[in-house]
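User: Could you go from structure to sequence for me? I need the amino acid at each position, not a summary. Structure tokens:
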């Protein structure tokens, strides 16, 4: 796989931003002096674990979205030989064929008219 715009892969460094934000904004518990604790509700550990898992999944989803955008802007393509029988360039019959590029394109409804 090759890329038409390989310099956009430098944008994958942006993947570090959500990780840094996650590490910096981590909730830290503070000990607050309080006269009585009987009126406060106790939070079960299960709820805390669920919230941590939810935050981790959200961060992974954001990283995947950024990685997908970087990959789309880099415009990957595959090289494949153009032979009449559809064989790849590794076969004996298609060794002299010129390579052919395959790219993915998106069409909007306004552009198809």
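Assistant: Here is the amino acid at each position, in order:
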């Amino acid at each position: 796989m090759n890329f038409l715009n390989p310099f956009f892969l430098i944008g994958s460094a942006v993947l570090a931003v959500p990780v840094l934000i996650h590490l910096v904004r981590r909730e830290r518990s503070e000990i607050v002096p309080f006269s009585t604790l009987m009126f406060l509700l106790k939070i079960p550990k299960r709820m805390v674990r669920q919230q941590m898992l939810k935050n981790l999944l959200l961060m992974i989803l954001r990283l995947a979205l950024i990685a997908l955008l970087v990959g789309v802007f880099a415009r990957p393509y595959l090289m494949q030989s153009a032979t009449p029988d559809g064989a790849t360039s590794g076969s004996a019959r298609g060794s002299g064929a010129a390579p052919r590029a395959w790219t993915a394109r998106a069409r909007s409804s306004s552009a198809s008219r």
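One structural detail worth keeping in mind: The mean pLDDT is 74.
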